[in-house]
């Protein structure tokens, strides 16, 4: 890559980072202007058009970039999808929350904009969540604990529940109060880890007793 191409890539990334910063600081993406993004990135407004046609295109690319990082995180949860070993479930939940902390702005963006004011961003996020669900369903199909789930539709429904629960867990984790009181925060985090682990185990227990054929007949 030439120096010119490298600088172009850096300025493009600066615009994406600026949009992410602004939209996770109490602002909705739909209220952010092109000029604000350029100013936050340290660029003149005309430089924006060297990389994106408009804010919608930037928003789509931002959703793609954020989703790639979260895709790996959500797939890592499969390590806890053991219906027999509760310790594995807790370990997976602990790793999940650690990763949420490391990519907190990405989670805040997707959670905040999933029902936000921009229809373009909402549609892009819905598309990515659909991909998350499809990929997770494929992963679950390969696990012994899910081999009795005989229909694709059932796997899709289970994956949808897991993905939506993951978003709820992440939102609750990031919104824990008393962040200035480390002792209280640790207690709240431990309680949330325990509750989340139990939620996952209860759901897996239900899955272990699920009968696709009986479900179709009910």
From TrEMBL:
<dbReference type="InterPro" id="IPR001647">
    <property type="entry name" value="HTH_TetR"/>
</dbReference>
<dbReference type="GO" id="GO:0003677">
    <property type="term" value="F:DNA binding"/>
</dbReference>
<keyword id="KW-0238">DNA-binding</keyword>
<dbReference type="InterPro" id="IPR050692">
    <property type="entry name" value="HTH_transcr_repressor_FabR"/>
</dbReference>
<keyword id="KW-0805">Transcription regulation</keyword>
<feature type="domain" description="HTH tetR-type">
    <location>
        <begin position="9"/>
        <end position="70"/>
    </location>
</feature>
<dbReference type="Pfam" id="PF21943">
    <property type="entry name" value="TetR_C_46"/>
</dbReference>
<keyword id="KW-0804">Transcription</keyword>
<dbReference type="InterPro" id="IPR009057">
    <property type="entry name" value="Homeodomain-like_sf"/>
</dbReference>
<dbReference type="Pfam" id="PF00440">
    <property type="entry name" value="TetR_N"/>
</dbReference>
<dbReference type="InterPro" id="IPR054129">
    <property type="entry name" value="DesT_TetR_C"/>
</dbReference>
<protein>
    <submittedName>
        <fullName>TetR family transcriptional regulator</fullName>
    </submittedName>
</protein>
<feature type="DNA-binding region" description="H-T-H motif">
    <location>
        <begin position="33"/>
        <end position="52"/>
    </location>
</feature>
